[in-house]
Amino acid sequence: MIGLIDANNFYVSCERLFRPDLQAKPVVVLSNNDGCVISRSNEIKALGIPMAAPLFQVQDLLDQHQASVFSSNFALYADLSARVMSILEALAPRVEVYSIDEAFLDFSGIQDISKTAQHIREQIAACLCIPTCIGIAPTKTLAKVANHLAKKNPRYKGVCILEKASDIEAVLETFPIEDIWGIGRRIAARLKALGITTAEELKQMDPRWMRQTFTVVGERLVYELNGISCLHLEPEIQALHSIQVSRSFSTPLTQFDAVREAVASYATRLAGKLRQHHLKTTTLVISVCTNRFQVRNRRYYNSILINLPTALNDDSRLIAASIQGLEAIFKTGFAYHKAGIVALELIPLTAIQLTLFDPKGEGSAKAQQISRALDKINQRYGRGTVHMAACGPRLSWRDKKSRKSPSYTTSWRQLPKVFAK
Ligand SMILES: [Mg+2]
Description:
Elements: E1 2-7, H1 10-17, E2 27-30, E3 37-40, H2 42-46, H3 55-64, E4 68-70, H4 74-91, E5 95-99, E6 102-106, H5 113-128, E7 132-137, H6 140-152, E8 159-161, H7 165-173, H8 185-193, H9 199-203, H10 207-225, E9 243-253, H11 256-276, E10 279-290, E11 301-312, H12 315-329, E12 336-348, H13 362-381
Parallel strand pairs: 2-4, 7-8
Antiparallel strand pairs: 1-6, 1-7, 2-3, 5-6, 9-12, 10-11, 10-12
Helix pairs in contact: 4-5, 11-12
The protein binds magnesium ion.
């Protein structure tokens, strides 16, 4: 049996850990730059505010109900996520971390599954005050279904086990296909056009026909729904296929210099992420776009692929390549809202080829030393203490984050204070 544990409205729960006064009150967390709602407490869901709602559309409703609104504090969420996962590692024989707030657990060989699952939930609630739900079934896809039920229906008390064939069938008969793990909007539409609307109907399909029509992914889905496991636990961290840094600006930018500074800064972030994962990249995609919500302004989107002469992960050369890309796609006369850089073709440091023009890798060694020094200084004194001049002194494109909570668990200076009388 495989379990899927998922934290309920995780970012909101993280904020509430240090603000117990916000229990049972409406709370939302916003995306980068305070653009959209990305985590909602149950009270907010009850108001009918949908996921990803742009803040300006729901601001009045939030004010009306005196909702607490937080900018995203990813340092806090990532740290609490690591703590949740370490509790899981101690209590379950095998764990596959699936996302910041989800993990698959191996329940095979466990005598009393229900009791063990409740114990795991209680431990996480006791240590971190984070509510969770667990779905348990013979396959990952069915565990996702079970988790969905555990979350939606309070009768399960946070743990839903789907084991008996008759139970599974009863659930799948009313389970819409678009809610099945791995079925995107497009596939859901194609299935519906074929008259398949419930998980049970999909389960009855001929796996070979599914393979012909929807590739091996579709075939696996049918097996998984039938309780035949095709997707096994992957305890190793999966190899990264791409790394991206894309943000919207706090105010729309019209000048090339301002956008260039933002792009240079994103290139720095990207370089830092590559070094952190011991990777280099040979290919970048740079993109810019205007705001899709401001219909009255003229819209523009463009992107460009840059092949680098050699695999890189240092700030200066990634900045140079990114700005070169930006120069090719930037058009004056638009109010830019967002820019992004994606690194494709990630290569582990152990498999790097040198170029013809720098056979000993000297240029690379020097750039690497500078990057390492920057990393050390910024780790010790805080991000942004020293940065490349190309990122500019203005920093006008910087995140707003006006409503960010302190980094309670990752910064000595921001430790919560407790007073006792
Ligand atoms: Mg969740």
